[in-house]
Amino acid sequence: MKNVTDSFVSLGHWPSAGSFGFNTDILATNPINLSVVLGVLIFFGKGVLNDLLDNRKQRILSTIRNSEELRRGAIEQLERARARLRKVEMEADEYRMNGYSEIEREKVNLINATSYSLEQLENDKNETLHFEQQRAINQVRQQVFQQALQGALGTLNSCLNSELHFRTISANIGILGAMEEITD
């Protein structure tokens, strides 16, 4: 067994093809095995590895392109949203200003309407007072006239005798008759 191990220990000496055996020296066989495996992997795996790397590269580039397109779309949406926000803010300011001016206009209209109503009420009050004054004056006139008439009748009745009374009535009847002829 020593022959077998000695033949693998010495790298410069290879046994003839007639002898075949297992080399149990791990330190001597590991670098050889690794170099063989790496050589086979590099030779046969080079195309597969290149294909995998190319596919990965294409997926990464595709993802980057999609991300860029999404970013551009998001930027466009953001700009549209900002423009819409500016428009809505301007409309809100316009509505606010129109609302304030409408409130002021309504306030002025209400003040004017109230002032007009108060003026109408004052005019109606003055007309009512004037009407009531005229009515009171007419009532006082009628009372004064009735009292004067009664006083005059009392004075006439006490001063007039029946003959004078008869002549006054006849004269008044004559005046009424003359007036009646004129109107016919």
From TrEMBL:
GO cellular component annotations of the record: chloroplast thylakoid membrane; proton-transporting ATP synthase complex
Record-level Gene Ontology MF annotations: proton-transporting ATP synthase activity, rotational mechanism
Membrane topology category: Single-pass membrane protein
InterPro entries per UniProt: ATP_synth_b/b'su_bac/chlpt
Domain of life: Eukaryota
Signal peptide: none
Pfam families membership: ATP-synt_B
Spans traversing the lipid bilayer: 32-49
Keywords attached to this entry: ATP synthesis, CF(0), Chloroplast, Coiled coil, Hydrogen ion transport, Ion transport, Membrane, Plastid, Thylakoid, Transmembrane, Transmembrane helix, Transport
Subcellular localization(s) per the UniProt record: Membrane; Plastid, Chloroplast thylakoid membrane
Coiled coil segments of this chain: 64-98
Main localisation: membrane
The protein's assembly and partners: F-type ATPases have 2 components, F(1) - the catalytic core - and F(0) - the membrane proton channel. F(1) has five subunits: alpha(3), beta(3), gamma(1), delta(1), epsilon(1). F(0) has four main subunits: a(1), b(1), b'(1) and c(10-14). The alpha and beta chains form an alternating ring which encloses part of the gamma chain. F(1) is attached to F(0) by a central stalk formed by the gamma and epsilon chains, while a peripheral stalk is formed by the delta, b and b' chains.
Miscellaneous comment as given in the Swiss-Prot or TrEMBL entry: In plastids the F-type ATPase is also known as CF(1)CF(0).
Family listed: Belongs to the ATPase B chain family.
Free-text function comment from the UniProt entry: Component of the F(0) channel, it forms part of the peripheral stalk, linking F(1) to F(0). F(1)F(0) ATP synthase produces ATP from ADP in the presence of a proton or sodium gradient. F-type ATPases consist of two structural domains, F(1) containing the extramembraneous catalytic core and F(0) containing the membrane proton channel, linked together by a central stalk and a peripheral stalk. During catalysis, ATP synthesis in the catalytic domain of F(1) is coupled via a rotary mechanism of the central stalk subunits to proton translocation.
Protein name per Swiss-Prot or TrEMBL: ATP synthase subunit b, chloroplastic
Organism encoding this protein: Cordyline indivisa
